[in-house]
Amino acid sequence: MVVTQPGELQEEHEHEHVHLPQHRHHFETEEQQREAASFGMWLFLLTEIMFFGGLFMAYLLYRNWYNPAFVAASHTLSIKLGALNTAILITSGFCMAMAVWAAETRKRKALVNFLGLTNFFGIAFLVVKYFEYAEKWHDSHIPGLKFSIADFGKLGVDMAQKTQVYYSLYFAMTGMHALHMIIGIVLIFWYMVRANRGEFTEGYVAPIENFGLYWHFVDIVWIFLFPLLYLIDLGAK
Amino acid sequence: MSTIVSLPDQSTAALPKRNYLNAEHGLLSWLLTGDHKRIAMLYLISITGFFFLGGAFAGLVRLELLTPAGDLLAADTYNKMFTMHGIVMIFLFLVPSVPATLGNFLIPIMIGARDLAFPKINLLSWYLYLIGGTFTLTALVLGGVDTGWTFTTPLSTHYLNTHVITTGLAIFVAGFSSIFTGLNFIVTIHRMRAPGMTWFRMPLFVWSNYAASILMVLGTPVLAIAIVLVVLERTIGLGVFDPAKGGDPLLFQHLFWFYSHPAVYIMILPGMGVISEVMANFSRKRVFGYTAVAFSSVAIAVFGFFVWAHHMFIMGVSNYSALVFSLLTMLVAVPSAIKIFNWSATLYKGSITFETPMLYAFGFIGLFTIGGLTGVFLGSLGMDIHLTETYFIVAHFHFVMVGGMLMAFLAGIHFWWPKMTGRMYPESLSKLAAVTTFIGFILTFFPQFILGYLGMPRRYHAYPADYQVLNVLSTAGATVLGVGYLLPILYLAWSLKYGEIAGPNPWQATGLEWQLQSPPLTENFTEIPYVDYEAYDFEWLAHKQKQEVTTVG
Amino acid sequence: MSDLHHDPANITNPEHHDHHIVGPSTYLVIYGTLLVLTAITVAAAFVEMGALNPIVAVLIAVIKATVVILWFMHMKYQSKLLKLTIGAGVFTFLVLIAMTLSDYMSRAWGLW
Predict the structure, then answer these.
(1) What is the pLDDT of residue A237?
(2) pLDDT, tens digit, 9 for 90 and up, residues B12-40
């Protein structure tokens, strides 16, 4: 082991970089810190893939087992609202991407505005979702709490009962997705306050960048949920 | 008997004036710390607490089984006892045991970093662990839970009125603690290695923790969603696993074991890392086949995801897929055997000494080999039909987890204790504890193999009188085992104040951590080192020590 | 001696990668693409293709997700390590699916 002469390493880096206040002492360079943070975020998204993965596994199984029930139950959802929400979420994702760009190019005002827009569309998504859930409550389509098979008479009692699996998955999947949205929205409010103070437009963009990854991941989940839950066998409708 | 221990002259030696233990004072400086070494100590204290709690449940279970009649505990109380034993020991002790204590303390130092990549997340994961622990204790105080640690549906969702939800949340939260630990390790090992510390210069302890971290990150979330669905089914009646609504209870088991089989590798892999370090050091040789041992850790992690349904052979999975899972299960034996053979080959022509960590490590090798080989019995489809749900399973699992993992944990604690605290424990007492543990362990669990083979089912509080002799042996052994676990607590606590000063490198070991003062500085290294030697290079160490003597002289 | 510490070949951290800023014009194109693909997936659902319907739906969703990952999440410009990370997640998910289905599909041979 060659023991470094005192101060040697530090001096080298001080020539290359101006130290930011966010630079934590245990990282040798800011580059290292930034790459560590982004890698950590991706690993977290990996756990999210597996978290939703369990639900998608359940979906795949039951869709194959109870296809008629899935077709009939999915037709009670509003495709218009689903498509609207998909568009809203994609727009929100676009605003998030723009927010990252604004942080990278050090535009403080633009960053705050784009974060605000991201949040606006995120909340709009949840509002639409609220109306969809309310309709399910009204129609007695919530397994466990308020459920009746009255709407699925032509499936036969046995298969009609299986629509409960569809709705269970519908609420578990969209519910988990909505929970991730709510967490994201709360975080955005906090980031807006900090962005307004100019924290992310002086070269320290990692938090915005990494939050962006999270937000886009939540989009991706919806990109899969939309066709799987709303768009089943519409030709037969 | 020869020894490699070399302590500084006790009349002049003192602990370093500045170290991570005395860098700051007060309870808050511990509760809000970002220092990986302090967090490791917090973990060590908390998991020890839960270990003895889980041990108390085990004691009650063994006491009940002393007599054939169910006379000490009612049937449902007994169910709660073994359930709480399993949950506390697995989720609150075994999973965080080596990674969160020794791993937390050592990984940054071993790779030449000042801390883990995310110190705050590291602290957060300790708090999540505590919250999980608190929820478990709450469930216990409110009346316990009796699903078994597996939460099998529909038992857990429909047929019990115990505190499944509270315990489920506990495991959900504790799971995230484990995810964050794994995430932190992976990022640290990828991004924070000192200059010159290439992948194949890392100590094998780091490799095996890396493999375990991958399992934590990829496996735990699947358990999390399975538990969430169970909780939702109990609370509002969603029907994903409910047969009345069309759900399949076996799907829960698939999701549960998708995590819980890899989870046993999360538990054992870091322990195997400890054994690699101890074997090399007390044989004074580089681990035989370093690369093979390193890759076998990764292989165990990867194979771990392909074998889970061997927990479900008798539960109604298809015969064809049971066949496939049975065959794949045999694959895991290969990397495990590579490790055992390579450790044995490391001993060959080594200068072996028998200090306490080495005694525990020998215990590990013997007991883990028995545990691993009986695993091959259970992985074989035909044998499993006969042996599953008997005490054979209990014995197998405890040979791997207690005989393997706990021995490795104690080996690690005894090996790195001087580094963590700066003081040595009384050597003769610790050797006594190691031997007591081994004897107690064999006495406790070996009879259970026979009991299981004779057909004694697990999870019942009463049994036919024919089985009593072996059960008495087992309970007697558990008492000895208990003594074996209490002893270290006593002398390690004693050593904190009265132990001999250990000096930087009492074992003459080669790892980066041993080139620092004990206990280390808060920032570990005053200067990040440049690593230009392989792991376990004892010649390099001898050369370095010779130079130091010349310089001082 | 001191150039040792620079690690010029970057042996220690070969995953290191330079930062790349993606601009608004790219984002607009991606945004448009995603909206168009959403329209296509809705339209495709109304065409009767039998067993192909869900496959097409998932295929389009995979394309959309890939587009988001590559550009919105900057994966196109990231190091191999991060690409491998995503790959590991997808791989493990596929293991979960494939191994679980190996049970369900062989339980009722021919009925699937």
Answers:
(1) 60
(2) 999 999 999 999 999 999 999 999 999 99
- As a CATH number, domain B35-552 is 1.20.210.10
Crossing angle of the two packed helices B427-454 and B391-398, in degrees rounded to 10: 160
Higher pLDDT, C27 or C20: C27
Question: Does C89 have pLDDT greater than 80?
Answer: yes
Q: For chain A, what is the radius of gyration of the CA atoms?
A: 23
Which runs of E-coded beta strand occur in B41-159? none
- pTM value? 0.93
Q: How close is the nearest chain A Cα to the Cα of B255, in Å?
A: 7
Q: Which residues of C touch B251 (CB under 8 A)?
A: 100
Answer whether residue A18 shows pLDDT above 70.
Answer: no
B222 to C104: CB separation less than 8 angstroms, yes or no? no
Q: Which residues of C touch A54 (CB under 8 A)?
A: 96
DSSP conformation letters of B75-97: HHHHHHHHHHHHHIIIIIIIHHI
Which of A4, A32, A231 faces C45 most closely, judged by CB atoms? A231
What's the first-to-final CA gap in chain C, in angstroms? 68
User: Chain A closest CA to B237's CA: distance in Å?
Assistant: 4
C-alpha angle B391-B394-B399 in degrees, rounded to nearest 5: 125
Crossing angle for the helix pair A108-138 and A79-104, to the nearest 10 degrees: 160
> Could you tell me the residue range of the domain that residue A75 belongs to?
46-236
At A5 the pLDDT is 41
- Structural domains counted in chain C: 2
User: How many Å lie between the alpha carbon of B210 and the closest alpha carbon of chain A?
Assistant: 13
Phi/psi for B6 (5° steps) reads -135, 110
List of chain C residues whose C-beta atoms are within 8 Å of the C-beta of residue B188: none
All residues of chain B having their beta carbon less than 8 Å from the beta carbon of residue A60 are none
Q: Which pLDDT score is estimated for B549?
A: 75
**Are residues C109 and C91 part of one domain?**
yes
Complex-level ipTM: 0.93
Domain region containing C41: 21-77
pLDDT at site B552: 56
Tell me whether the omega of the peptide bond preceding residue B154 falls within 30 degrees of 0, making it cis: yes
Look at A222-226, B425-429, C13-17 and tell me which has the smallest mean pLDDT.
C13-17
| Among B215, B245, B252, B254, the residue to mutate for chain A (most A Cβ within 10 A) | B245
Predicted confidence (pLDDT) per residue in C47-78, tens digit: 988 889 999 999 999 999 999 999 999 999 88
